[in-house]
Amino acid sequence: MTHFTFETTSRPTPADQRKILLEDPKFGRVFTDHMAIIHYSEDKGWHDAKITPRQPLPLDPASTVFHYGQEIFEGMKAYKGRDGKPLLFRPQANAARFAASARRLAMAELPEDLLLDSIRSLLKLDQEWIPTGEGQSLYLRPFMISNEVFLGVKPSHEYLYVLLASPAGAYFSHGCVSVWVTDRYTRAAPGGTGEAKCGGNYASSLVAQMEASANGCDQVLFLDAVEKRYVEEMGGMNIMFVRHDGSVVTPPLNGSILRGVTRDSLLRLGRHMGITMVEEPLVMDEVFAAIEKGDIAEAFACGTAAVVSPIGVFKRESGDVKFGDGNTPGETTMKLRKALESIQRDEAEDPFGWRYRVAL
Ligand SMILES: *Cc1c(COP(=O)(O)O)cnc(C)c1O
User: Rounded to an integer, what distance in angstroms lies between the CA atom of residue 339 and that of residue 250?
Assistant: First the structure.
């Protein structure tokens, strides 16, 4: 059993300054005072688990991560429960996915309990950073890099696991997002790393995100890499469509689509609410035609950061389609969002036991 040692910062953020930072933290720029760090080496295994002041990492420039990109990460949110204690949402699913990502990238697996322990230990010192305003949460970012000093191409024998915490506001402010369907770039191919949450997937998606921005869109949607016909997912979120008959459909997990915890939760929660939730391949051309005809009435992106984000417009090289005025969230979309958020925020029954109270 690895135990964390605690090294607290000598210069904690004063409470009044933290209060100002928490008023409107936006996303990913404000950090708590501490971080968790654990080392791995082949001979010692996981060792030297620490909570330290948040600080730069000393890394040799020959560390393998800089050259061959063995890097994985996770994203989850901590809320404050009604009892004032930190609350997570299905963190075991993130820990299991982190281990699965490590296997795909030939990295050392962090035991799932150790990841949960790192969160518990960090929150012991930084729980005051959990914001409580509408749409706010403390975003948790566990990640792992390879840091053996070696330029040869092989799986590293040394790894560094780090956990950061970053107070966050609502990811997308209001209204709907616009989505660019790229016919040019793909995100993940069969047998590739699409199911792993690794930085490399994001690196290769950014040029497509730039293409989306150049075409006036907020987000990019990728098609399958083989036929470039089937809907897969966005750069960092899964996608769902609402049919005219009220059923919800999303592409099935095929090895190149990331197994979103939000996606899985919505499928189960939707069924519980009496909504027909279907996993079925979707041909992009048919989706455009169905939106035009009104057979598909809503669409939304889903993921931890954005929870559920209504989509107003789809654009691609061959033309655009939109829902109504292109900026009005759909009814089923908002119903699902509300239901999921209410569970996450401790405001509703938790029929699946998804909430996880952090015992400090
Ligand atoms: C993280 C991620 C998602 C969403 O997963 P959640 O577990 O719901 O946060 C979707 N697609 C990609 C590519 C991702 O990296």
Answer: 18
Give the model's pLDDT for residue 173.
65
Q: Can you give the pLDDT at residue 1? A: 57
Beta bridge partners of 143: 73, 162
pTM > 0.70: yes or no:
yes
- Going by DSSP bridges, is the β-strand pair 76-80/86-89 parallel, antiparallel, or unpaired? antiparallel
Beta strand spans in the chain (E): 5-6, 34-41, 45-53, 71-73, 76-80, 86-89, 137-146, 158-168, 177-181, 219-223, 231-234, 238-243, 248-250, 277-279, 296-303, 307-316, 319-322, 355-357
Q: Ligand 1: which of 185, 238, 267, 308 to mutate, most ligand atoms within 8 Å of CB?
A: 238
**In the Cβ-directed half-sphere of 85, how many Cα atoms lie within 13 Å?**
9
Beta bridge partners of 300: 240, 310
Structure tokens at 291: 């939106």
For ligand 1, atom 14, which residue shows the shortest CA distance?
236
User: What is the C-alpha separation between 255 and 203, in angstroms, rounded?
Assistant: 19
Which ligand 1 atom is nearest residue 187's CA?
13
Distance CA 74, CA 96 (A): 10
142 CA to middle of ligand 1, Å?
14
How do residues 168-210 score in pLDDT, each as one tens digit? 997 766 789 999 999 999 999 999 999 999 999 999 999 999 9
Pocket test for ligand 1, best of 254, 304, 354 (most atoms within 8 A of CB): 304
Quote the ligand 1 centre to 196 CA distance (angstroms).
Answer: 10
Nearest residue CA, atom 2 of ligand 1?
236
DSSP letter assigned to residue 199: H
Do the Cβ atoms of 4 and 46 come closer than 8 Å? no
Pocket lining for ligand 1, CB < 6 angstroms: 75, 197, 233, 236-238, 258, 260-263, 303-304
pLDDT digits (tens, 9 = 90+) for 221-233: 999 999 999 999 9
